Amino acid sequence: MAKKSMIEREEKRRRLAKKYAAKRAELKAIAGDKSLPADERFAARLKLAELPRNSAPVRQHNRCEVSGRPRGYYRKLRMSRIALRELASKGQVPGMVKSSW
Fold it and tell me: Which of 7, 33, 47, 50 is 20 to 30 A from 24 (CA-CA)?
């Protein structure tokens, strides 16, 4: 099980990214628009830099929803390989059977 503080930190990053998504997109559009004057684009970049760092979606890290583990993460199932194996062994994942030969 991952530390509670790390799980909460990731949750905080998700909330901040969602909160600032519209403002961040607007500022990035202004900063990337070549038809605008350079000083206006530069001002947009400065405002973008003033936003909280954790509001950037790139800072989010995938974590297992069962255990909070950050590594060995399956995107489709939204859980780690270890949690998946445990649930599959208990028969709680539909359609998944432990192989034997």
Answer: 7
Lookup: tokens for 91: 């028969």
Q: Where in the chain is the domain with CATH 1.10.287.1480?
A: 1-61
- Beta strands 79-80 and 73-74, pairing class: antiparallel
CA nearest neighbour of 45 among 32, 31, 33: 31
Which pTM does this prediction carry? 0.80
The two structure tokens encoding residue 39: 């000083």
- Is 1.10.287.1480 the CATH number for 1-61? yes
What one-letter code names the amino acid at 49?
Answer: A
Q: How far apart are CA 2 and CA 63, in angstroms?
A: 9
